[in-house]
Structures are given as structure tokens and as C-alpha cells.
Amino acid sequence: MKIDIRSFEYVEEFKYLGTNLTNQNSLQEEIKCRMKSGNACCHLVKNLLSSTLLSKYLKINIHRTIILPVVLYGFKTW
Asked: What is the number of domains present in the chain?
């Protein structure tokens, strides 16, 4: 596509501000990607979450501050 003196390439999908955008405006791939990222975060902190030294309150705070933001980043645009 050419607008004035600039030309733009047509692509099926691209990543913008950490979010995958597709030409079909499909959210399935973005949601799958977010779930994979959330699972990776959960795996990284599983030793903390399974520790008997930490209180339940602290484990909930770890979940809210580390895992949920990764999964829910950009959800308002979905």
C-alpha cells in the first residue's frame, strides 16, 4: 500500500505494544499467548507459592502482583 511517498507492507499479524494484532482481528492467538506467559510466570514462582513459610495472604499478593498483570495485560482492548 502506498500513501503519498510512503509505502506500507501488508502483513497477516504483528506485535504492537506487547499485543499480537491480526488482520482478522482475532483474539484467540493473543489469549493463548497470554495464558502461556501466565503459566511461565506461575512456573517461575511455584516454589514461593508452595512454600510453607509464607502465609496465604502473601501468596495471594504474589499471585496478584506477578501473575495476573502478565495474563491480563491489554485485556481492555480485547
From this structure: 1
User: What are the Cα distances from residue 39, in Å, to 10, 53, 66?
Assistant: 32, 23, 11
d(CA 67, CA 71): 7
CA 33 vs. chain centroid, Å, equals 6
Q: Which of 47, 43, 45, 24 is nearest to 35 (CA)?
A: 43
Q: Smallest Cα–Cα separation from 38: which of 47, 30, 48, 28? A: 30
Residue identified by cell 493463548 is 32
Cell of 15: 506485535
Residues 14-58 have pLDDT tens digits of: 887 777 777 777 778 778 888 888 889 889 888 988 989 989 999
Report field, pTM of the whole predicted structure over 0.70: no
CB contact at 8 A, 29 and 18: no
